Amino acid sequence: METAYARFRDERTGHVADYIPALAKADPDAFGICAAGTGGESFAVGDADVPFSIQSVSKPFVFALVCEALGAAEAAERLGVDATGMPFNSVMALELDADRATNPLVNSGAIATTSLVPGATVEERWDRLRAGLSRFAGRALAMDDDVYASEAATNLRNVGIAHLLRGYSRLFSDPDEAVDVYTRQCSLLVTARDLAIMGATLAGGGVQPVTGEQVISPDTCRRVLAVMATAGLYERSGSWLYDVGLPGKSGVSGGIVTVSPGKGAVAVWSPPLDAAGNSVRGQLATRFLSERLGLNLF
Ligand code: DON
Question: Which end of the chain has less Cβ packing within 10 Å, N or C?
């Protein structure tokens, strides 16, 4: 891990996301790596304990909560589980599918996933979602209010997608409420160490390695990891699997979590992104570690 950190620290390609204005303030030099095992041990280098908003890395964990609530078959039926091969915020992906389904790891499917979190009111759904993600992390996660307000003021595309989904009966709550809960979810603050431990929970059949809590079932873990393998890095998911050989999930704040089933997870945080919205140093460091540690599943 130290070799990976030293090797990629000076990488200068990529750009910090700025379509959410608050994310443009991120430090392009920030770089942290953490690996966590299913036995609860973790190893970190660099900025592994610096908080950042989770963004899309929340998506597989919210999907896991929805699979637990509805069952994996119904969740797949309502949301779809096939890769779109298109950018994360694509409207065309939704329009091109005959059933208007995408998958839980792109914005349209993720907003639909959030709309399925059980609860009688928006606050009940939010409490359940935040509590669920906190159980994965093993600590109470808090929102970055600045990132939330910034995204809520500029996310008209997500609002549009939610209304479109509702029109196709592919959204399961009020569209504006669904986008609001989704935007709060994306603003939850985590560290690379949190993401590694959350990923290690998926690696260990749903058992949180530090608290020992069974957060989700082994069957849900398998379903979530399958969707991460096919769609976790959006239109780059195929080349990711080709090089790294592991399920992963990226987010626009620069986090990537990668799961080694049965063993643990690696999380990297570094804000500069490639054109698809995936952390440049995150991809390089994870690929290096997958090779060096012999983690490729194939
Ligand atoms: O909805 C959005 O656009 C953001 N809250 C999350 C997108 C994201 O992280 C995509 N990642 N690469």
Answer: C
Residue 147 placed within a domain: yes
**So what's the pLDDT on residue 15?**
98
- Binding-site residue numbers are 56, 107, 151, 158, 182, 234, 252
pLDDT-derived band at 75, boundaries 50, 70, 90? very high
- What's residue 248's pLDDT? 98
CATH number of the domain where residue 26 is located: 3.40.710.10
Q: Decide: 56 in ligand 1 pocket, CB within 6 A.
A: yes
* pLDDT tens-digit map of 32-74: 999 999 999 999 999 999 999 999 999 999 999 999 999 999 9
- Does residue 30 lie within any of the structural domains? yes
> Number of structural domains, the chain?
1
Q: What is the ipTM of this complex?
A: 0.97
Tell me the binding residues for substrate. 56, 107, 151, 158, 182, 234, 252
In which domain, by residue range, is 96 found? 2-292
Length of the chain measured in residues = 298
Residue 298, domain member (yes or no): no
